[in-house]
Amino acid sequence: MFKDFKKIQIKMPKKFSVWHIIIAFGFFILLQMYLMNPGVRDITYSDFKKLVKDGNVLECHITHTMVRGKLREIERGTTKNVIFITARVDDPDLVKDLESMGVRYAGHYESPWFRTFFFSWVMPLLILFVVWRFVFKRFGPASSIMTFGKSKGRLYAQEDLNVTFDDVAGIDEAKEELQEIIEFLKTPEKFRALGGKIPKGVLLVGAPGTGKTLLAKAVAGEAGVPFFNMSGSEFVEMFVGVGAARVRDLFNQADQKAPCIIFIDELDALGKARGANPMGGHDEREQTLNQLLVEMDGFDSNKGVIIMGATNRPEMLDSALLRPGRFDRQVVVDRPDLHGREAILNVHAKDVKLEKEINLHSVAAMTPGFVGADLANLVNEAALLAARRNKKAVGMPEFEEAIDRIMAGLEKKKRLMNMKEKEIVAYHESGHALVACSLPHADPVRKISMIPRGIGALGYTLQKPTEDRYLMTRTELLDRVAIFVGGRVAEEIIFNEISTGAQNDLEKATEIAKLMVKEYGMSDKMGLVTFEQGNRPLFLGGGFAASKEYSEETAREIDLEIKKIMDESFHRVKALLTEKKEILRGMAKTLMEQEVIEGEELKKLLEELHKANEKSARA
Ligand code: ADP
Ligand code: ZN
């Protein structure tokens, strides 16, 4: 395995600040001031009377509560008109005075309660509502109390999906594994009559965009059953209990439509290991997860409801979800290899007009690391580019440009490797494989790949155990350590430096060495003693707080023994790979060209390389 350390990117929810409220409030006050009195001078009633008597009031409007009007003001020789307002005082002489001065006046009746009502009730409520909506949008997945408990959105089954297996390409292994499920959904009676046990839950594991949703839909489409689609994050709500109610609702609906498929995307959003967060976990999520477990246990799989989950982080899932009777079947949806990519391109290019001489194989060769969603996007981009250029069909230049664009996007997401990284990964994986092929006690290599698998790994080497193993000898364990070390040593020999990618390998190798010394009594120096009492569960204090039953001195010796095993393995592997350096080069080169080498192919390749090597050695 080769680990990618740039992977983790934590998204923080944007904080809603108190400033928003203050600004809204200030705005409200300004608005009110503007509406109520635009540049108005507030004067006392006595001043008003005086102004009237002096003939400085030009006109006024009289209401029950106030007098409003225009007055003349003389300031440094110039006169200007000012609007004034004054509270009305019970004054029977007012009209007389106005008449005598010839002021234009008018009475007004208004229903003051309307304005008061509007400003003191409607406006504040309106603003509160807006603020409230705003806060909720920020904090929770958009929802309001209105949708309480009811599952929202797509909870209604999609009945006639037009997706079939023909629309899914490049992931044939996964398709094969799902064939049985389709058979069952089509004719559940047949299986029931035989008393067969049908899986309840199938977990699709794979990177985003590899086609997990598409695959689940295709299963429903092939079997002709309804499809319920929900995302794990949709279950996790702000209000405790809502998610659980949704799960119940979902299963109720599905029950009525059986046989059918329930698809839960982003299962990890819901099924994160419980208690993983010591600072007071997420009650709501836990409740929802518990409800899901209860529902999964509660219904009879023979009814024909299959639950499919999708995740790209299976290691995050609560182990309770993976127990028998739940998501016990796991289907890996890999990133497509060269052939797979060509097949996917063919699917998506079906409805696109291509130039005659276009070669989708070479397009596939240019797009290592692309997943199905990227390829669909690629075809679409190319078609758009062609349209923009007023071409009648999509040609190679459009594809090339579209690839460049998508690559740029992906590189930002750190999903594609640059050439140097690719070379390192190729040598690293070839190192593992070559060591495995050279040692007599190692399991044969089934596949080497540098197509990133899962999130962290940039490449992988698969070994296939020839038989089930319960006992392993010391030599076999040492060979295992050697294989883990092989990746790093290969990097060291070829590039004369080492990358961070080997950390995971070293961890595993050290783990084996530790077990050999501490538990299996396989170290000459420490002898036939075991220093560890089996594997205690973590919560019983196994993990970090485990009590040591041996002295500091012994601990030091154990460490030294582990180090000795590791050092010896390093030297052994280094000698081996240095001797076979040319073969290593040949393997890495082929791997870079093909991205994947399967077991049989690898055998042949090794034979050829060996022959070539001997020839050159003799010459
Ligand atoms: P995921 O659920 O794994 O994130 P999706 O199923 O949502 O991926 O894939 C998104 C789109 O990418 C699909 O609708 C389809 O157009 C395209 N796609 C992905 N994988 C494939 C595939 N193997 N074959 C054909 N199209 C694919
Ligand atoms: Zn490795």
Can I get a quick summary?
The protein is an alpha/beta fold and 619 residues long. Helices cover 50% and strands 11% of the residues. It is built from 21 helices and 13 strands.
How would you explain this protein's 3D organization?
With 619 residues, the chain is of the alpha/beta class. Helices cover 50% and strands 11% of the residues. It is built from 21 helices and 13 strands. The strands form three sheets. Strands 1-4-3-2-5 form a five-stranded mixed beta sheet, covered by helices on one side. Strands 7-8-9-6-10 form a five-stranded parallel beta sheet. α20 packs across α21 (599-618). The model is unreliable at 3-14, 141-154 and 534-546 (pLDDT under 50). The site of adenosine-5'-diphosphate has 18 residues, from α7, α12 and α14.
